[in-house]
Specification:
By secondary structure, this protein is α/β, with parallel strands linked by helices. It has a single domain, classed as 3-Layer(aba) Sandwich (Rossmann fold). Helices cover about 25% and strands about 25% of the residues. The protein contains four helices and ten strands. A hairpin with a 4-residue loop joins strand 5 and strand 6. Helix 1 crosses helix 4.
């Protein structure tokens, strides 16, 4: 449903001696301190985007090991036996569990697994050069985590800070934040390389 023209987004950028795969689907990352409300906000935005007919994916970045599989299930036994990849597929869902030697680049994750989505909402990835919205709570932090990041496009919080980017109160309707996001993504797509 994204009408900004995802086919017009840059697919890669050249860095000396390195080709970095750029995501083909628009991504916005939500950053902020733990317990600031990132997940709660993302859930509200997913519901609003889905109500408008968009195909939405999320990516949660983790610095810790995690387990998706359930002990004792067949897929868990396959992984424990040494399978490098296990796919669990049914009529309505599919899950992929892969053993990897290092963290995959965001562009590779998106272009391999999420290429058919309209928009991706990520949680984390604060060091990536992608658009970011910081979720800020004054009782958790005195300042913004990404205040000097050129990719910070907005702040959602409980207290308006002295910033030169759009601010949304944490209690604002999710529709106003989604309107902003979609407008921003359409402008970005129009100005991207051809």
């Amino acid at each position: 449903m994204y009408q900004g023209g995802t086919d017009k987004l840059c697919l890669s950028v050249f860095v000396p001696n390195l080709l970095i795969m750029q995501p083909k689907v628009p991504i916005v990352s939500f950053v902020g301190k733990s317990n600031s409300g990132k997940t709660t906000l993302i859930v509200k935005l997913i519901r609003e985007l889905k109500s408008r007919g968009y195909k939405v994916a999320t990516i949660k970045h983790s610095h810790h090991s995690f387990e998706l599989d359930k002990e004792g299930k067949d897929s868990w036994l396959h992984t424990r036996a040494g399978a490098d990849a296990v796919v669990v597929a049914s009529e309505k869902k599919m899950g992929v569990i892969r053993i990897i030697s290092g963290e995959l680049p965001l562009g590779e994750i998106v272009n391999t697994y999420l290429y058919d989505m309209d928009i991706i909402l990520a949680e984390g990835y604060k060091t990536q050069t992608i658009p970011k919205i910081e979720v800020f709570r004054s009782e958790i932090s005195a300042g913004l985590v990404c205040k000097d990041d050129q990719n910070l496009i907005a702040v959602v919080g409980d207290t308006k800070l002295e910033i030169n980017i759009p601010f949304f109160h944490i209690d604002d309707k999710s529709s106003s934040i989604v309107d902003f996001l979609l407008s921003r993504l359409k402008k970005s797509a129009a100005g991207s390389c051809t």
